[in-house]
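Methods — Computational structure assignment.
A single polypeptide chain was analysed. Its primary sequence is given first, followed by the predicted tertiary structure written as structure tokens.
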Amino acid sequence: MVEPSSKKQEQGQEWLEELLQLVGLSVPVKSTFQESEFGASYWLTIDAAYLTPKQVKALTGARGEALDAIQYMANTILNLGCAPEEQAAYTVELDGYRLRRLEELKRIASEAVETVRQTGEEQELKELSAAERRQVHNLLSEDTDLETYSRGQEPHRSLVIRMRS
């Protein structure tokens, strides 16, 4: 189990608030430490109550791409110069997007698994970000009759689910 660090938590919160200020948004960020089926991470939640719907849409981006980019920057910048055992994982949340998308990924994976088990044919999930592919890999990791792997090159990389050989 990863032990939470108030210093890491504060660093994440301050970094994201400063990034938002640089783009002209004075928005509070709430930081919490959470454990899930994907491991432990610091959740940096941008307070959507301080944003217009247009700003929320811009910060989220098409299919969450802008939010993914912010999260990637947070994880890269906040872990620069840290030894591997000192690195922290950060999840950037806005207006419930991550939680809604996780439920959607679970549904997509469940439907694909059902098809694979019924037909024996592999299913390819396209248009998932690297983080989403990793989430589906983790979601299905305990299904001993199935295997998952990634196919192709970015930006056309996909996740394949098939019966284990």
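Note: The mean pLDDT is 92.
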